Amino acid sequence: MKNLIIVRHAKSSWYAVSDKDRSLSSRGVKDAHLVSSEILQYLPKTFIIWSSTAKRASETATIFTQNISCPLESIIYKDELYTFECKELLKVIKSCSDSYDCVILFGHNEAITDFVNKFTDVFVENVPTSGFVSINFEVNSWEDIDKGEIKKMIFPRHLKR
């Protein structure tokens, strides 16, 4: 079985020179801390962490990694995750070594929402910023992922009630 955990980067600021350089807003930082403090019980014992190289995604990955007590050096930055296309996101996921059974991936919309809707058993109108989605695939190879089952979704709004 393969477990993919997708996290959409936290809310970002629009004050930047380029899209890739946008950092998190104060709300984004709070929401990333809020969600990441709730996920430990839903993580497997071993996993790898991949993040887009965009500043807002890498800052989100840093917050989550610190809150789940992982060394920051464990984050693997992949420029290919700076994508808004489901097809490109799928290509990166399928490239994962089968020696890893769980990947925690920090990326961007529309790719994330489209991926969740195409490859799971649930329709989600929008995976919000800081949204956490854990998906199980009953396959032995990342190359073979198709329809998966959502095991857990945690969105900031679920924790603010």
Strand arrangement, largest sheet? 3-2-4-1-5-6
The tally of beta strands, per DSSP, is 6
End-to-end Cα distance, whole Å, is 34 Å
Q: Which outline best applies?
A: globular
Assign the CATH class: Alpha Beta
What does the model show?
The chain has a six-stranded mixed beta sheet with strand order 3-2-4-1-5-6, with helices on both faces. The protein has helices at 26-36, 55-67, 86-94, 111-119, 156-159, and strands at 2-8, 48-52, 75-78, 102-107, 132-137, 149-154. It has one domain (2-159): Phosphoglycerate mutase-like (Rossmann fold, 3-Layer(aba) Sandwich). It contains five helices and six strands, in the order βαβαβαβαββα. It has 161 residues and is α/β, with parallel strands linked by helices.
